[in-house]
Amino acid sequence: MLEFQYYLPVNLVFGRGKSDIIGEKAAALGKRALLVTGGSSTKRSGLLNKIEVLLQENGVSFCLFDKVTPNPSIITIYEGAALAASEACDVIIGVGGGSSIDAAKGIAFQTVNGGDINDFIFGRKFSAKALPVIAIPTTCGTGSEGNGFAVMTNPETMDKKSLRSNAIVPACSIIDPLLMTTLPKSTLACVGFDALCHNMEGYLSSVAQPLTSIQALEGIRLSAQSLGKVYDDPSDLDSWEQLCLASTLGGMVINTAGVTAPHGMEHPASGLKDLVHGKGLAALTPVIIEESILGAPEKFAVISKLLGGNNEKDCVQKIKELLHRINLVTTLGEQGITQEDVDWMAKNCLKVSAAGINNHPVVFSLDDIKKIYRKAI
Amino acid sequence: MLEFQYYLPVNLVFGRGKSDIIGEKAAALGKRALLVTGGSSTKRSGLLNKIEVLLQENGVSFCLFDKVTPNPSIITIYEGAALAASEACDVIIGVGGGSSIDAAKGIAFQTVNGGDINDFIFGRKFSAKALPVIAIPTTCGTGSEGNGFAVMTNPETMDKKSLRSNAIVPACSIIDPLLMTTLPKSTLACVGFDALCHNMEGYLSSVAQPLTSIQALEGIRLSAQSLGKVYDDPSDLDSWEQLCLASTLGGMVINTAGVTAPHGMEHPASGLKDLVHGKGLAALTPVIIEESILGAPEKFAVISKLLGGNNEKDCVQKIKELLHRINLVTTLGEQGITQEDVDWMAKNCLKVSAAGINNHPVVFSLDDIKKIYRKAI
Known about the structure:
The structure is a homodimer of 377-residue chains. Chain A is α/β, with parallel strands linked by helices. Chain A has helices at 22-29, 41-44, 47-57, 74-86, 98-113, 117-121, 185-204, 210-232, 237-257, 261-273, 277-290, 297-306, 315-325, 342-352, 354-359, 366-376, and strands spanning 4-7, 11-14, 32-38, 61-68, 91-96, 133-137, 149-154, 159-164, 172-175.
């Protein structure tokens, strides 16, 4: 019996060079923008400067908040929201990787709602209001431009968990593949694998539904087809387009279908030890899938075929081959996680990732989770 | 090179029995509803009465506008809008087939914007405002619950053309397959074929884009699989679900990808002679596709395979077989169209359906269009 609800008011503008229309898009949404970005890459590339000029040309004033770091902290969100409020910003523009866009969303939400953002993250409070957000991704991984999630870490508890609200679905997302082509190979590998994981996990999720599954399958197909190609040849723009679209699709998919165990188990690790998210996923995903095939053999067969395999039995092997091709074979141990961290991570996983664990084709117990962490170290 | 914009804020609630939550959904959107429906079937089935009770139980008052006829006229829209205004309605609920839902959308738009609605239909004026619409389809064909289109006919000019605005994308669409199961077989055949056409045309359209194409292919697959089954066995609820979903997908697809020649050429015919839309499509589609294969052989091969065929060469045959199975083999002549109507229809087609004709894999000239009409008579 088929039952679902679907609401995802994304507003996507996709194409080479489309970041040139940021000025008019911002002018349609506000008069004073808070530009949210990380410390350096958007400056170095000239993108930030270009955006500032385009905003001015379109009569949108702005102030800059460039303090976003990877795995953004709730403290950063509070700081940005205070600035947005004191500067009377009416639109928030996130430019950069997933961290910048998630921070922009968190700031857009916090500016309007105030109080302890953890109340909203853990579902004790609810709000449908936020400032409008414009997302301009410069990486093709999180898909944050395609959903109403903003992942942030609480430095007091090390909880890495997402704020989820339709209010922070970007009012406009400009996906410009030309902004991605200068990504360092190591970053590309991490974000591209993240995109693949979103699509695989959304497809595997027990709360998947027809609209998310067709997007997820297209996302798996596109990322499987393009990730290795752009890794080898960054001048292959057609493949960049495919990977960017796969990333946005992955973001859209998880908004409704959620993530499953790989993301669910990675968050405690990167919450605790500030891992690079894609590397954490690379260490965990093959181990987790090995323990999951029996829970949904047909779905793993479909995934495997899209990765070039034959059936569910070679799915893990195909994922390992892709990781090998993009030089992303790694373990949690290599990233600083030790056997002593396992108990905390496993407990934290059931705290911050209860939904993801529940959506997985095999619902792991606390002991299963510990066993997988140990194996991945 | 891939470029697209995508924005379709549908809010779908899908599942057997879901129409029972109309009260709470309406209460979230307004205090006084205009209930828009046709003359009889929603009364006979008891659905209208059920909805009235649920609205009352949830503190939503309402007044009834039950004057919608097939191929709704602009006059009906004006009349409904006048009632909505005088009764101070703040939410419009469309219950019934595509005509009722399209009328509800038109009324929601006209109530707020006033003036000559043709200005908006023909793009001389623009508005992003309308009252919120709730759509409860009782047929699975138009997919109106999935888009921002409202087709209406101007009785002065016989122009049958859609108002298109994101403002009339329903704020909530409740797709309850249990509401469809009592459709007369002849109606089912017409609406089900309409749903298939939306998906085929959206897939064939030159302005198709990745998100619409994956939805369209799924819509073709689902309708091809389910239409014959529910026609044979109305108790097959799983197939009803598939057909309902295909219908909603078709509506979503055409919002962005548009329709092509079959819908483009059917509208002049049903604008002029008040045809049953699905019958008009049944007469025209095989003839049009025969003349179109060479424009997109790969796409017609994909469609053919989803219909059980082998390649583009048997696509028309597969469509004819489906029409035969659901007793919908017909000609325009059988529906009252004569050779004398051809010149007017062809000229009107280029007036009201310019976009659809342009999106088609083969862009037909006025003479081509006349030839096809003649063949379909």
